[in-house]
Amino acid sequence: MPLEIVTIPCLEDNYAYLVNGTDGVAIIDAPEAAPIIDALDSRGWTPGVIMLTHHHWDHVQAIDELKEKYGCMVMGPKAEEDKLPKLDFALPNGFSGGSGNSLCQVIPVPGHTLGHVAYYYPEGPAVFTADSLMALGCGRLFEGTPEMMWDSLSRLAELPGETMVYSGHEYTTGNAKFALTIDPDNQNLISRVRDIEAARKAGLPTAQVPLSLELETNPFLRASDEDLKTSLGMASASNVEVFAEIRARKDAF
């Protein structure tokens, strides 16, 4: 059967995800219990595991309620084990587990936090990036450095272009406005912004997109693009320097 993914809006702008595959149902991040429970119960699904991407409260606060109701295991990055709710299994970077289309790889993506991970399902193909790579953006560097985040984004950029990226927040409208200030002549970006505006007016989520579209339009993934470097007046700068400049501009936007 194909991998089935359900997008669940939580809190004001967070997302949790259900992944139903060969090995059963996994919850990716746990921002808020009620909408996750509603999504599970309406489908008659029982989760076997909750998989956490990083330690921030808006990704973990529903753990206790969900675990009490369903008795599911909790997994998360070993690098943040001391900051997370009690884990049943701490996942080392590069860990691969599961069978069939539930096969999942743990990709280290530090920058937003030092131990942040993404979950990659090759058979999806899908990657759950939370607050690392985001739709038309990336997470703020609360704990890491520009070098760390650029390395993380570059690692994700190497995945197949058809991979669907599922990020952790509905920040796309604001990210789109900023992206146009960096890359105003990008016709793919201009078209995407129109699509985003229409989707949001219809109440639809926009933080779930093919990686190929991110590579064409996300300025944080395009820091190595020579035309973009020139437009920023940074033609001779390194990719990391350009990324850091874009991140600094977004922080002040």
Write the layout of secondary structure elements.
Elements: E1 4-10, E2 14-21, E3 24-28, H1 33-43, E4 47-51, H2 57-60, H3 63-70, E5 73-77, E6 89-91, E7 96-97, E8 104-108, E9 117-121, E10 126-130, E11 133-134, E12 137-138, H4 146-157, E13 164-167, H5 172-182, H6 187-201, E14 208-210, H7 211-217, H8 226-231, H9 239-251
Parallel strand pairs: 3-4, 4-5, 5-6, 10-13
Antiparallel strand pairs: 1-2, 2-3, 7-8, 8-9, 9-10, 11-12, 13-14
What's the story with the biggest beta sheet? 6 strands, mixed
Strand order of the largest sheet: 1-2-3-4-5-6
In whole angstroms, the N-to-C terminal distance is 44 Å
Low-confidence stretches: none
Q: Helical residue percent?
A: 25-40%
Structural class: alpha/beta
The share of residues in extended strands comes to: 15-25%
Molecular shape: globular
Q: How many β strands by DSSP?
A: 14
**Helix count, per DSSP?**
9
Helix and strand pattern: EEEHEHHEEEEEEEEHEHHEHHH
Mean pLDDT: 97
Task: Write down the Rg.
Answer: 18 Å
